[in-house]
Amino acid sequence: MTPPAILASRSYLTPDSQALILATVGLPARGKSFIAHKLAAFLSWSGHRTNIFNAGQTRRRTITGEPEAKMERVGSAASFFDSSDAEAKALREQIAMNTLEELLEWFGEVGGIAIFDATNSNAKRRAAVVQRAEEASRKGGPQVSVVFIESVCDDANVLEANMLAKVRASPDFSSLDEEAALDDLRKRIAHYEAAYETVSDAEGAYIKLYNLSSKVTANQVFGRMSKSVLPFLLSLHVGERPVYLAALIPGMSGRASHDSVFTSRLTDWVRANTKTRSLRVLSSTQPAAIATATQVAAGGSCVVTQHSGLNSLDLGVNPTESLEMLSRMGFHERFDGGESFADLVRRLEPVLLEIEASMDPVLVLSHSLPCRALRAYFLGIEVASCMGAASSSAALALVNDSHSVVELKPRMGGSFSEEIHKLE
């Protein structure tokens, strides 16, 4: 029989809290900010009120307008991160806690999910974060819970890539050449390593990721963390590959003349643009998508997977009227007898995880609205704002008969840009 204490613990941890802090943990150049930005994009796309609070940005704001002597004390040089320097250590703690206060103020009365992007590299700091969250909960606002997300990296190749990405992107190193920046970063890491403490079970809920690969350890993680966040984190990697979106006509057999023309053009375009790499093709289960996926994959190095989640949005009892309302619908508003954008995103979530996990280029063969919803995630825009055909040139390119492909190109840090290809 299960002990009552275990059941009580599970009962306490399973419900979703009104306000959730996802606090990163890790040495510099371990991909914490990469994880934070990917998580924020995913959670926002899923309909959660989400924001990132970065301690490094708070530190850089702190030095703006300060005398030069103080700027050196709270600046970006490696010496500022020396744990044996009591004054610098106190300043770092003050900056971190100021960032946490901004985060808690952002929760207000409505809560949400806040990502506390900082090193949080020792048990004392993490205990202070948990204690402050508990204090905020007792003041009558939303109940605040904390989950630590630790990024552990001991793979030399991954670490070197992370370090290069950091010195090229961080404002901390903008005044240094690359070699000097790397040297300063290595010294900063050494200072942190001297006092680093990994998260333990006694500290509460956490997820540990190892080398941004498939190895993970989780403790006291239930509810939405286990349903969505943990699988999403497992899908992440730093490999770069494009994602192609192509909209098809729902319900067509694939034999209509204009559909056959598009399929032929798409097949030629895919083969010309993916000569040196395998391609993963994800299609809806509707006939036009299956027929097109079959032809695109014929004779090539393609893996084809069908997903019912990619089927067209159910527009309800009056599809014509619903199409006219697309640009005015809110995220949670449901078409009469049909689905909402939130329903669509929910069933697209497994598709998105498969796209994120893929190391190869991905071609999505779906219909205009699922394609637009996926595009919203990769470009970090609100789903409801980009579902109407007139919302952007890319949304217009994702009309079912446009004969276009929208290419999403990876950029440093995990974001994407887009390019529209007209197939003629």
What this model shows, in words?
The chain folds into 2 domains: 233 residues, Rossmann fold; 180 residues, Rossmann fold. 45% of the residues lie in helices and 17% in strands. It has 15 helices and 12 strands. Strands 2-3-1-4-5-6 form a 6-stranded mixed sheet, sandwiched between helices. β8, α11 and β9 form a beta-alpha-beta unit. α3 crosses α5 and α5 runs parallel beside α6. The longest helix is centred in the N-terminal third of the chain and has 22 residues. It is globular, with a radius of gyration of 24 Å. The chain starts with a helix and ends with a strand. One of its GO terms (molecular function) is 6-phosphofructo-2-kinase activity. This is 6-phosphofructo-2-kinase domain-containing protein.
